Automatic annotation (TrEMBL):
Similarity section: Belongs to the ABC transporter superfamily.
EC number(s) stated in the UniProt entry for this protein: 3.6.3.-
Coiled coil: none
An annotated Gene Ontology molecular function: ATP hydrolysis activity
Keywords: ATP-binding, Hydrolase, Nucleotide-binding, Transport
Name this polypeptide is given: Putative ABC transporter ATP-binding protein YxlF
Domain ABC transporter stretches: 2-232
Enzyme class name: hydrolase
InterPro entries attached to this UniProt entry: AAA+_ATPase, ABC_transporter-like_ATP-bd, ABC_transporter-like_CS, P-loop_NTPase
Domain of life: Bacteria
SUPFAM superfamilies named among the record's database cross-references: P-loop containing nucleoside triphosphate hydrolases
Length: 310
């Protein structure tokens, strides 16, 4: 499990992360979402010990990463695909990492390197120099490095970057499999659309602060407005309000209404009870993207070329 509590990082003029607290559970894929500059990378760098918090803490399985006995075996990290050395081959880089981690060739031997290269789809490209690879392939090398020592926790900053649609689909499957194996998987993105089919939960931040922690399955069920056209809307709504406590409505186009807080069944029964014919009754699922954009609307730093100061 990853846990951050009151995590804060202040640079001279910028508070990049402020009083951030959340948990990432094992066996799930958790998306870490926020607009550009929200503080995702800074938070991840603090989780993995590359940046010191100004205040608060980040723990992995109950301890700061520096106190873990063998960090590489416990936490796999992908922060920047371009951190992989251009002059080395993928296999050479992984071999070097295995040695640098001091885990020895006994545990992370040639077999393991072959296995992770296969797992990230680079089975045939292990001997290519990293500098000759596309961004998508370099991301895969970074993922292979993160998976090398079979860690229980994965912290991945924008792993989708540079992957083509096939690559995105592949990564989605890989992350789901890793979570199904009981691992804790945290990945950042600034796009909800990348998370919709990948994550179980999302932690949304904006301007360094927690905006929302959401279970995507709950989110899909919640707040589905229903579009209603009926012959006598006033009577239908009065009846509906008698039956369902908190119903909100707003006029949309023409004579249609949008009703929030009641199901189509409840609306249909209320209309029947007052004898008003229903002309249209349609739930309109809001996309997760819409909900996310609404949540982060106040926290967008850069929009259409204008920078909003903090
Ligand atoms: N070393 C630093 N010195 C000063 N300011 C920094 C430093 N690192 C990050 N920041 C600032 O902290 C804020 C958060 O940056 P961060 O990179 O963590 O955001 P992010 O959510 O990862 O953004 P993106 O999606 O664009 O990568 C930004 O305003 C950034 O300019």
């Amino acid at each position: 499990m990853i846990e951050v509590r009151d995590l804060t990082r202040v640079y001279r003029a910028t508070t990049a992360v402020e009083d951030l607290s959340f948990r990432v559970q094992p066996g799930t894929v958790t998306g870490f979402l926020g607009p550009n500059g929200a503080g995702k990378s800074t938070t991840m760098r603090m989780m993995v010990g590359l940046e010191r918090p100004t205040r608060g803490w980040a723990h992995i399985d109950g301890r700061p990463i520096a106190e873990l006995a063998s960090p590489l075996r416990e936490v796999g990290v992908l922060l920047d695909a371009d951190a992989c050395p251009a002059g080395m081959t993928a296999r050479g880089h992984l071999r070097w990492l295995a040695r640098a981690a001091g885990v020895g060739t006994g545990r992370i031997g040639t077999g393991r390197i072959g296995t992770v290269l296969e797992r990230v789809g680079l089975g045939g490209a292990g001997d290519r120099r990293i500098g000759t690879m596309s961004l998508g392939m370099r991301q895969r090398v970074g993922l292979a490095a993160a998976l090398l020592a079979d860690p229980a926790t994965l912290i991945l900053d924008e792993p989708v970057n540079g992957l083509d649609p096939d690559g995105v689909r592949w990564l989605r499957g890989l992350l789901r499999d890793l979570a199904a194996e009981g691992r804790t998987v945290l990945l950042s993105s600034h796009l909800m659309s990348e998370m919709e089919q990948t994550a179980d939960r999302v932690v949304v931040i904006g301007r360094g602060r927690l905006v929302a922690e959401l279970d995507l399955a709950d989110m899909r069920r919640a707040a589905v407005p229903v579009r209603l056209r009926t012959v006598d809307p006033d009577r239908v709504l009065a009846e509906l309000r008698d039956r369902v406590a908190s119903v909100a409505t707003r006029a949309v186009d023409g004579d249609a209404l949008e009703v929030v807080g009641a199901t189509p069944d409840e609306i249909g029964v209320a209309a029947h009870a007052v004898g008003s014919a229903v002309l249209e009754l349609a739930p309109r699922a809001r996309s997760l993207e819409e909900i996310y954009l609404q949540l982060t609307d106040d926290a967008v730093d850069y929009r259409a070329g204008t920078e909003v100061s903090r």
